[in-house]
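note to self — DONT lose this again. spent like an hour looking for the file last time. sequence + predicted structure for the chain T wanted, 148 res
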Amino acid sequence: MHYLYDRPLPFRPVPLSFEPVAPGQCSSVLYSASILDMIGYSLRSCVERGITVRRCKNCGRYFPQTGRVSAEYRERSVTEGQKTCRETGDLLQQRAKKWSDNLVFKAYCKEYKKRFARIKARRISDTDFYTRSEQTREMKQKYHSGGI
């Protein structure tokens, strides 16, 4: 049974050639006619080398898992000059651990989400929400400073 004659190919053939690139050195050379050829070649080389791809928990973009197998965040920043997703993700995890046992913070978050949902449902106006939010932040500051 010949696979080529029984079914259509799942991938298009990649225009590759094996050529000398320097004296005594040969390499694969890609002759791409479109961006799809380059994407297909990159995908095949990742499969060939056993590189897995994972989705970043911070920004949702895909990244190759080349280092640690348990990596959850990308090593690149979303925009130039900002922290990397890994640094941001670590900060978010630390904050979640810090506040997970704090009952006041949990109540604050619950109330904030409830009020924000009311804006989405158009039950209260934006100005009312942000006025109330500012009052709540002030109360939260008093709590943390020991005033309440």
